[in-house]
Amino acid sequence: MLSMRRDAKLRRDALIAAAAESFAEYGYNVPLEEVAARAGVGRGTLYRNFKDREALALAIFDTEIDRLAAIVERQQDLRQSMIDLALISSRGTALFARIAAQLVADTENMAAFEALGERFARVLDPLAERARANGDLRSDIDGAKLSLALRMVSSLFYDLHENVAGHGKLDEALDLVLDGMLALKR
């Protein structure tokens, strides 16, 4: 597999960042010319990197999963990991909800979106495994269930982001969610 040239990777990363900002600000149907302009590239560069709007959205979420995987790799305890994941993923959760509401995906793109959800669950599996081994989670909680819990908590936090009350609500929501997944102490 050939590696991407550094300048090409920088342009691709700029397009992904610009698309995330544009989709969040203007909605999923923002003109792709707007995304290209925000990234500082032409339409041709955009279409050389992404065949369509859905491919661009998939790249945004793939990048978000990479960011979340780095948090799981820190080997923190369950609660701190969930807090960090919620803080990082709140924007992605809101963006995903906004895109999903407007998305008309074909079969190929729908399969790719589902594969991203499965990838995210696999990224969270080591966290679930560590927490089960520590007695912090029930034996039936895996990465997929942690993913669902994280989406619930992150969606609440996004509305309250960056204020003290928001952090308090995040703690309360996390308490409720984690209490439901805790291993019974004997």
Description:
- This protein has two domains: 50 residues, Arc Repressor Mutant, subunit A (Orthogonal Bundle), CATH 1.10.10; 130 residues, Tetracycline Repressor, domain 2 (Orthogonal Bundle).
- With 186 residues, it is mainly α.
- The chain contains eight helices and no strands.
- Helix 1 crosses helix 2, helix 5 crosses helix 7 and helix 5 crosses helix 8.
Low-pLDDT windows of residues: none
Q: Which percent range describes the beta-strand content?
A: under 5%
- What is the architecture of the largest domain at the second tier of CATH? Orthogonal Bundle
Number of folding domains? Answer: 2
Span of the ends, CA to CA = 52 Å
List SSEs in N-to-C order: HHHHHHHH
Q: Briefly, what CATH class of the largest domain?
A: Mainly Alpha
CA-based gyration radius? 18 Å
Which properties best describe this structure?
mainly alpha, Tetracycline Repressor, domain 2
List the helices and strands and how they pair.
Blueprint: H1 6-26, H2 32-39, H3 43-49, H4 53-72, H5 78-102, H6 107-133, H7 143-160, H8 164-181
Summarize the structure.
With 186 residues, the chain is an all-alpha fold.
